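User: Before I run my own analysis I want an independent prediction to cross-check against. Here's the chain; please return only the structure tokens and, at the end, one sentence I can use as a sanity check.
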Amino acid sequence: MRLLIAIALAALSGAALAAPDPAMKALMAAEVNPGALAFWAGGNDPPEGEASAAAEARWIAAEAGARTLQAAGRAMAEPGVSRPGCWNEFAALMVSTGAEGEAASRARNAEQAFEIGGRLYDACNGCHKTYVPTPQRLP
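Assistant: Structure tokens:
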């Protein structure tokens, strides 16, 4: 009986760890995802034949995206919001890579932005693996 209770509690704690949070979903959809996509575009290979004005606009958007990631990371780790596990570490990583990404974007350093973008991806992916439930697979 104690074993069954322990298993049930473990399952519930795992479910709580991955439970959807509507406010966080909204932050991800409105801020994090667009910010990350804009930042990543700065470090990717430019489109073939990209005009210098378009390249400049892409880098400006990458800088803004990196600033957005910093603000979102700070919001995710708001004092008084308690989430289990390494949540705040992932949020801090978003802030720090966002700051590095902003500097690389400002310098128009595609190689550095690409490397930082990879670390940002790893942070996002690690958080999603920990906190986002796996979608149901169709048969």
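Sanity check: Helices lie at 2-18, 22-43, 52-76, 87-106, 110-131.
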